[in-house]
Amino acid sequence: MRCVLIGNYGVGNIGDEALRQYFLGAFPEVTWTVVSAAPQRMGEVPRLPLGLRSCFRAWWKTIIAFCLSDAVVFGGGTLFTDSESVFACVLWGMHALVARVFGLQIVLAFQGVGPFRTRFAECLTKCIFEQASFVSVRDAASLERVRKWALQCEPIESFDPAFAVFAPYRAPAPVARTLVIIPRGNSDEEFCAPVRGEISKPWDAIHILLMQPDKKERQVAVKISALCGGKSTIIEIDSVTQLLAQVSQASMVVTQRYHGALAALAMKKPVMIVPQIKDDKLEQLRMEASDPQSMENFLQKVRVGEEELGKILVTE
Q1: How far apart are CA 316 and CA 69, in angstroms?
Q2: Apex 100 CA angle, 56 and 42, nearest 5
């Protein structure tokens, strides 16, 4: 089967790259073409244009990929939310629309859905999900949202498959008491407050990890470093392997990055998960992770989602 894999790939976010790694590794039988914000590897094409600058990219290669494929797979992550910007829903909605024009199956796999600030974003997401032939979501809150819609398939509750990428990593014992802090580019006082509480404790080292090291995230890291009195190290993460290596040395993790939290949970590290807004993916993960059986439950949910998705991608 030939599929176009669509996600927030190529923006420098290590969590999204872990999702990309999962799909390519879990379904080698599928011939994948990956839609990326910055295509560099073989088999990658640019996003469809949405704005003047993107019109100058080789988006016709993406159209050709759609023509030659059987389905488009929206692969994990919280693609459908306007918690930061309604632009995301419009962008992915445009890709879904083109898929329908070419008569392709729309497969929504391991999706985080919402929360929504605007009625427009929610209605647009609902339209996309109503066109899908397969829907799996990564948490109970997303499942509750999509069950309210008239879908043509029964949605499946799974879990973020990046956890299955992280879980096999065997963390060596830390050699020092290290606090790991993982901010976002829009982390504010809601995040800095618990960070202050942790940095007051006696640590041998404090590492600030940038999982999407753009200008905004670096500015936040500099601010947090100042709170530490300059006694910290800012580390730009450029691969899943580096993320796991850094988290493996942590004695404590404070994170506002979802996949930073997943990495800590996979390695059974003490972790403080700081939500951005009420009922967001981080708050949902924090609630689920409080269950003593959560690690086993997470892996089992991933397996369920993978098996059901395989029935669509591998057998047809």
Answers
A1: 13
A2: 45
Decide if pLDDT at 248 tops 80: yes
Alpha carbon distance 175, 32 (integer Å): 41
In this structure, the number of other CB atoms found within 10 A of the CB of residue 295 comes to 15
What CA–CA distance (Å, rounded) separates 269 from 286?
14
CATH of domain 2-157: 3.40.50.2000
pLDDT score, position 275: 96
In this structure, which amino acid lies at residue 208? I
3-state secondary structure of 279: coil
Task: Say if CB 66 and CB 98 are below 8 A apart.
Answer: yes
Top-level class of domain 166-291: alpha beta
Kindly report the number of other CB atoms within 10 A of residue 112's CB atom: 23
Q: What is the pLDDT of residues 43-99, one digit of tens each?
A: 999 999 987 776 778 899 999 999 999 999 999 999 999 988 899 999 999 999 999
pLDDT, position 51:
73
Tokens for 274?
């700081």
The alpha-helical segments, DSSP class H, found in 136-236 are: 140-146, 162-166, 189-199, 215-227
